[in-house]
Design brief:
Blueprint lengths: L2 H16 L3 H8 L3 E10 L5 E12 L5 E7 L7 H9 L7 H18 L4 E7 L8 H15 L8 E5 L5 H15 L22 H16 L8 E5 L3 H12 L3 E7 L2 E4 L6 H11 L9 E3 L11 E4 L18 E3 L8 H10 L2 E3 L1 H4 L2 H15 L5 H26 L3 H21 L20 H6 L5
Helix pairs in contact: 1-4, 1-14, 4-14, 5-6, 7-8, 7-12, 7-13, 12-13, 13-14
The structure holds nicotinamide-adenine-dinucleotide.
The site of nicotinamide-adenine-dinucleotide has 20 residues, from helix 8 and strand 7.
Family: Belongs to the Glu/Leu/Phe/Val dehydrogenases family.
Catalytic activity: L-glutamate + NAD(+) + H2O = 2-oxoglutarate + NH4(+) + NADH + H(+); L-glutamate + NADP(+) + H2O = 2-oxoglutarate + NH4(+) + NADPH + H(+)
GO molecular function: glutamate dehydrogenase (NAD+) activity; nucleotide binding
């Protein structure tokens, strides 16, 4: 099941639990605005090439919209290809996928209780095929086309697949030509341009705080428990390192190059050094190699998928031996696997909460830029811990109120808090749950529209 299907399914289930009117439910699913722009640049050899950039802004009830900008070949929308695709009546890009990811950002921000809505976007290109100067030109042209539709209090992009701190620096520079110096228009910037300390580790660190909150609920702690971690990139390696520092035993790790196991616990700093010097997990002396697929069903206390979506499915869910699963990757568990795991008594901490540390520290970056005051790393990490712990208890409250699992506890939080804002808008008092009404709100729906439109259910 893809991201769209899984997000819609979870949202609809949550809507039932909340008793939402079907028309209100539909209004929360429809994006606020979809933007598509043509971006033509000269390549280094002087020839022109055209790409299509896009941005889906899902919802702004709780505050400015927030989400990544990705450069990815799967969303290759060069005009030539677009014409070919239109001719054969098929569409290589899955706009629904981007809509789903934008929607997921709305709910994730609400779960983290940060005053943002959700957005997602990107350019259909293969960044690996472009030189640095071509990427810069493309990013600047894209920014010129959308600068009136993003902004500090409107929509705040961040890095995603195929983009990085450098991309954000180009967007910031180009945007500032039109609007004056505006560091808060993007997050995930280089530190020198107003990026936040602690951002690089934030998602992995948030995963560990989330795990601590869950384990504490079950009378346990990281120390002494065994962990299997799929993925050793940004999120997986930070999670592994912090678990190791807390006395947890990481007994299995995998990435695209292979998998290793050691029942006594892998020396994670050593594995990081090995990966850094060889680029691979293979031939690591401190552990035995293992079948990468076996990692997901390896005997351990806590399984943390930090790589791909859909890795836990009906094919392997029955064989999972972990007691807890912390979803660091986006949608790693298929709904079918969810049901099987629930029957086995496995506790699943959902992605929408477990990997929200990144967007939470992005919010801290935005706050620091607006304050014009930089926090030290300790303050960033401590505040992140407070947010992750509070969010866990908010989810637990929803679980109790609606007699549901943690995934539904998280998914009911999002629509409920967006609705609080809309209700305030309908009655003329526009403020979010924190009482902050300072950000610019854009009209999305009014009460008359909700009752007038006969949505299909
Ligand atoms: N980085 C963030 O801030 C962030 C925030 C929220 C969610 N996420 C999600 O977390 C996941 C990981 O993100 P990341 O930033 O660490 O990405 P990354 O590219 O840094 O790392 C991905 C890791 O997955 C491994 N991998 C790929 N295919 C694999 C396979 N078949 N088996 C085992 N490992 C495999 C790669 O080798 C790599 O180690 C993704 O699902 C991403 O959407 C990341």
């Amino acid at each position: 099941m893809n991201a769209l299907a899984a997000t819609s399914r979870n949202f609809r289930h949550a809507a039932r639990l909340l008793g939402l009117d079907s028309k209100v439910e539909m209004s929360l699913l429809i994006p606020f605005r979809e933007i598509k722009v043509e971006c033509t640049i000269p390549k280094d050899d002087g020839t022109l090439v055209s790409y299509v950039g896009f941005r889906v802004q899902h919802d702004n009830a709780r505050g400015p919209m927030k989400g990544g900008i990705r450069y990815h070949p799967e969303v290759d929308l060069s005009l030539k290809l677009m014409l070919m695709l239109l001719l054969i009546c098929s569409w290589k890009v899955d706009p629904d996928e981007v809509n789903a990811l934008a929607q997921l950002m709305t709910w994730k921000s609400a779960v983290a209780d940060i005053p943002y809505g959700g957005a997602k976007g990107g350019i259909g290109c293969n960044p690996g095929d472009l030189s640095k100067s071509e990427l810069e030109r493309l990013t600047r042209v894209f920014t010129q086309k959308i600068h009136d539709l993003i902004g500090v209090h409107t929509d705040v992009p961040a890095p995603d697949m195929g983009t990085n701190a450098q991309t954000m620096a180009w967007i910031l520079d180009e945007y500032s030509k039109f609007h004056g110096h505006s560091p808060a228009v993007v997050t995930g910037k280089p530190i020198d341009l107003g990026g936040s300390l602690g951002r690089e580790a934030a998602t992995g660190r948030g995963v560990v705080f989330a795990a601590e909150a869950l384990l504490a609920e079950h009378g346990k702690a990281i120390k002494g428990l065994t962990f299997a971690i799929q993925g050793f990139g940004n999120v997986g390696s930070w999670a592994a390192k912090l678990i190791h520092e807390r006395g947890g035993k990481v007994i299995a790790v995998s990435d695209i190059t292979g998998a290793v196991k050691n029942p006594h616990g892998i020396d994670i700093p050593e594995l990081l050094r090995h990966k850094e010097s060889t680029g691979s997990l293979k031939d690591f002396q401190g552990a035995d190699s293992m079948d990468a697929n076996e990692l997901l069903v390896h005997k351990c206390d806590v399984l943390i998928p930090c790589a791909l979506g859909g890795v836990l499915n009906r094919g392997n869910a029955a064989d999972v031996k972990a007691k807890f699963i912390i979803e660091a990757a986006n949608h790693p568990t298929d709904p079918e696997a969810d049901e099987i795991l629930a029957k086995k008594g496995v506790v699943v901490l959902p992605d929408i909460y477990a990997n929200s540390g990144g967007v939470t520290v992005s919010y801290f970056e935005w706050v620091q830029n607006i304050q014009g005051f930089m926090w030290d790393e300790q303050q960033v990490n401590k505040t992140l811990q407070n947010y992750m712990t509070r969010a866990f208890h908010n989810i637990k409250n929803m679980c109790q109120t609606h007699d549901c699992n943690l995934r539904m506890g998280a998914f009911t939080l999002g629509p409920q808090s967006s609705l609080h804002c809309y209700k305030n808008e309908f009655t003329g008092s526009c403020s979010d749950r924190t009482g902050n009404s300072s950000h610019q709100r854009l009209p999305k729906l009014d009460a008359t529209l909700i009752t007038a439109i006969d949505f299909e259910t």
